[in-house]
Amino acid sequence: MYHNPSARSWKSKHIVRPSVLKFHQTLPDYGKTPLIKLPAKVGEQLGVGAILLKDESHRFALPSYKILGASWGCVCTITHCLGILPSAPLSRIRQLVAVVHYTFYTATDGNWGRAVAHMAKFLGANALIYVPKVMVEATKQKIRQEGAEVIVVDGDYDMAVKEAERAAITQPRGLLIEDTAWPGYEEIPQWVVDGYSTMMVEIDEQCQELTGRPLNLIICPVGVGSLAQAVVAHYKSRDAPSTVMAVEPDTAACLKTSLESGQMTSISTGNTTMCGMNCGTVSMTAWPFLRNGVDASITVTDDESAEAQEMLKDMEISMGPCSAATLAALFSISEEEKETLHLNRDSVIVLLGTEGARGEAFDMS
User: Fold this and answer.
1) How far apart, in Å, are the Cα atoms of 161 and each of 11, 48, 298, 364?
2) Is 45 strand, coil or helix?
3) Per residue in 21-73, pLDDT tens?
4) Which Pfam families is this protein grouped with (predicted)?
5) 182 backbone dihedrals φ, ψ, rounded to 5°
6) Residue 80: how many other CB atoms lie within 10 Å
7) Which of the four, 145, 167, 239, 305, has the lowest number of CB atoms within 10 Å?
8) Are 334 and 43 in contact (CB under 8 A)?
9) Count of other CB atoms within 10 angstroms of residue 154
10) Smallest Cα–Cα separation from 228: which of 308, 288, 188?
């Protein structure tokens, strides 16, 4: 486990923007996703208090949290181009999009691209989704069912990002909607991160309702780190901040590698069932937050994630491998590391269940 002692006292300047939640509440099918309290025996086994799982398996009728960032990112991008406010009525935005004929371009390992395609269909735009060559057909078909065109690149996720960018800049009405940032492409990924804040607002309210206490530790799956950026920004903005732990596949630990080296470090990734986290480069705008505000970073194997997934099934909770990775991370913490993270039998822990269960031979990250 990587541990950053200084993160405990680091302060974020994040301010909750009520406009984001208000926007999400205007979308069809909005509703708080559940915060599930795991059986008390699990906490007793681990020597901690309440363990809560944020279940993002049904968010706006999609199987992951990604639509929170994609919806706000897409609307902010389009309204910026149109010269109107994001708070404009959705009917008005759709009328203008129908005239201009925008096309969204993005790269994905699965759920992100599906969410962008879903928003393109909702707003009346086109969508071209670039995917790595290892993506299985069932995943690509789910994206196509949202009305998007899927383009397979001869490489990994990082190459798909480059190809999507290259294609978008050649089109006068092409809009690149990515959840990862690099020099010169920072504003839209930040809007995406802002979109994820709705999840944190919900967790705060639900945690208080369930336990009457603030959370002590939140465990977040990490791909490029945009969700983790939102988590750190929110939970490190308080006078009594929560501890933040990041978890990655052992075959794609770009954040842990970067934290250990003290600088952003791209890596080559291997295959993993946790494909939504199979990313080789941390988002540039996320990096300062993660470098300063992540208390601990840990990796888990596919087998450990699968074992945790089975444990959740035994609790009648259906989650995908990326979600199960958070429980696997919690079980992998040693007694000494629990002391380092100030965990005890009164601690409230939140696991981010970022995706629902996948069907047979279905790879949706």
Assistant:
1) 32, 40, 26, 17
2) helix
3) 999 999 998 999 999 999 999 999 999 999 999 999 999 999 999 999 999 99
4) PALP (PF00291)
5) -150, 170
6) 15
7) 239
8) no
9) 9
10) 288
